[in-house]
Amino acid sequence: xxxxxxxxxxxxxxxxxxxxxxxxxxxxxxxxxxxxxxxxxxxxxxxxxxxxxxxxxxxxxxxxxxxxxxxxxxxxxxxxxxxxxxxxxxxxxxxxxxxxxxxxxxxxxxxxxxxxxxxxxxxxxxxxxxxxxxxxxxxxxxxxxxxxxxxxxxxxxxxxxxxxxxxxxxxxxxxxxxxxxxxxxxxxxxxxxxxxxxxxxxxxxxxxxxxxxxxxxxxxxxxxxxxxxxxxxxxxxxxxxxxxxxxxxxxxxxxxxxxxxxxxxxxxxxxxxxxxxxxxxxxxxxxxxxxxxxxxxxxxxxxxxxxxxxxxxxxxxxxxxx
Length: 322
Hints:
This protein is mainly beta. The chain has helices spanning about 175-185, 255-260, and strands spanning about 30, 40-45, 50-55, 60-65, 75-80, 95-105, 115-120, 135, 150-155, 165-175, 200-205, 210-215, 220-225, 230-235, 250, 270, 310-315.
C-alpha cells in the first residue's frame, strides 16, 4: 500500500503520520523544501517567533516547557502551521490560536529534565500536504547511536542572524554514555555526576560545527525508520552552540508516552518494533479529546531559561578550541 494519501477534504480516513508528500534533502545543512517537514510549526509570542514545535494530532502541538517562561497565558501565543518563510505570507499557512498550555508538572529547568509541553489548539487542524502529523515512537529501542536523524527550525546561521527560510540539518544520535563522556571533557564537573537526566539524550557531532542553537527550542528531532518519520526527541538545551564535545541535549519523547496519553495526545504513537516490512504504513485513529484542565499548566517562577531557546544553527566553517 502507498504512503501517499489525500487531504481529509477528499479522503475518507485521516492521513498517515510521518509521511510527507514532498521530499527533498541536502546533506550538510541547508534550506528545506517547502512542505518537506509538514509537522514543523512556529510558536509565536505576541506576534514574534520564539520556539519550534510539531503537529502530533489535529488539536495538539508538542514542544518544550521552557518556551513559556515569558507568559502562561494562552492568549499571548499563536501557532503558525504550514510555514516555510516566516516573514513572507504563504497560502499554505494557517494561524491557530491556543486554548491551553500544558507544561509537565515536574519541569523546573531544562537541564533538570521534564522539558516537555503541549499546546491545545482552539480549533481542529485541517490537514493538507503542507500540514501533517509526525508519528511518535512507543519506544526508543530501535533508534540507536549513530543513526542519522534531522533537526529543523528557523535558526541562525553563520551568515544570517535570522534566516527567513526553514532550515534542516542532519544530526546523528549520541548515546547517553557518550554524551556524558563528552560533556565531562574540559569540565570541572565530577565524572561521577551525569550531565543529563534519564529523560534526556544527545545528538550531534563531537567536532561541533552543526547543531541546534539559541532561539528555537521545542522543535522536533526526527528519524526515518522503515519509510516512516518518527519524532524521537525535542530540542531542549546545550552548552554553547556547535562547540566541540558539547552536542545538543534533547528531551526523549518515548519517556513521556504515559504523560501524553493523559491528554489523548498519543493517537499517532506507533509500536515501532511491530513493523516487519517496508510497506507497513501507520494510520491515525479517531481522536478522543479530554476537556479536563491540568494542574501542570504552570511554570515555576524560579525556572531559568537556558538561553533564549534553541534555533537551528548550521556552522559552515571549521571551528577550533584550545
